[in-house]
Amino acid sequence: MINGERTTSRPLRWGMVGGGRTGQVGYKHRTGALRDGTYQLVAGAFDLDADRGRDFGVNLGVAEDRCYTTYQDLIAGETGREDGVDVVSVATPNFTHFEITKALLNAGIHVICEKPLFFTVAECEEVAALAAEKGLIVGVTYGFTGHPLVHQMAAMVAKGMLGDIRIVDMQYTHGFNAGDDDSADAVKWRTNPATAGATFVLGDIGTHLYYLSEVVLPHMQIEKLLCDRKAFIPSRAPLEDHATVLMHYDNGARGRLWVSSVNAGNMGSQRYRFVGSKASIEWSDSHPDQLIYQVQGEPERIMHHGMPYLEAESLAVDRMGALHTEGLGDSWSNIYLWIAQAIDAKTRGDEDFLKTHHYPGIKAGTEGVRWLENCVRSADAGAAWVAYE
Ligand code: NAD
Q1: Structural domain for 222, as ranges
Q2: Which of the residues 17, 60, 210, 246 could staple to 71 if both were Cys, CB 3.0 to 4.6 A apart?
Q3: Which ranges carry the Gfo/Idh/MocA-like oxidoreductase N-terminal domain (predicted)?
Q4: Whose CA is nearest to atom 44 of ligand 1?
Q5: Residues 342 and 377 in one domain
């Protein structure tokens, strides 16, 4: 169980680029990072609007002279100080991730970056090489995968409790873009290929599904996929507001994934069903406390987080204990803690720890971008089956 006790050498001096007052995801980062005293927020270039960013940073408790106008100023200011930041989170629109991450790494600062990590696998590989050369960590905030029931699912699959995995069924949908008003800042950049990259909903929400499936099914690789995508609001083309992806895995399993932001009226968010030869499991972040476990020929079971009957891997990362809600904020806290432990190990030169330590890092970010590249290649070929590259 995680109880806030320190597991790293010292609190990390932490900064943020983006995630300002009007940003959608900034508070999730702060919820994750500031929970256990593992990070201290000491600097930021929080906002494109520098005055608003400074005012916001001061209200968060950051010293005014460490609320910077741009990320370049942040790097210049922080590298000039003895107590400069150890790590910076990048919570800005997609097109800025690559340039900001590279600049931070070049300045010797660890990075925690939003998904989708970059636009291309080639960019991911360039940054992976740079981080390795500099001895720095790149974490990626796939925030849902810290939940203890995700790790329960992974443990059940690893221990053979489902048998051989046959079917993977995943959905992340909402209806917030069912209408054609794309004027809000956060929608405007998401629906423009220059600022979002080659995808809208596939990158925005589909990468969460894909990474969670990698955590639960690390032994399975996609062999080929077919992606069919469509912009129901034509002005969003060539980006999609809806997509379905079929996947064939190397163990013979079949996968089906649906992402959409035009699923009018739907607030279901994410749903996962993993079907094996003996049993199935199903989890949704609408009811994150519960995992449905169905063994063929037996009554359905609903497993609750934090209960002693769960696997040790799940109980080890539980925070609230059974009876009390464990949700997205707790999951983000685990992700931030695991990244802090990776940074701490890297700083101590403990490569043995890093060999087995689980956290979403540069590889997870790269595989998300690789999956997107394959989806786009298939969709652009007229929803054709393509070999996974
Ligand atoms: P947003 O448009 O709501 O907010 C972006 C924030 O970044 C704003 O505060 C803006 O002023 C600031 N900003 C933009 N460019 C900047 C720059 N160059 N320097 C400093 N600040 C800058 O966007 P959002 O929805 O918060 O998304 C940001 C990123 O987070 C995207 O990559 C998105 O895909 C990702 N995201 C991830 C999750 C998740 O669950 N992990 C959830 C939502 C968004």
Answers
A1: 148-316+368-387
A2: 17
A3: 12-142
A4: 25
A5: no
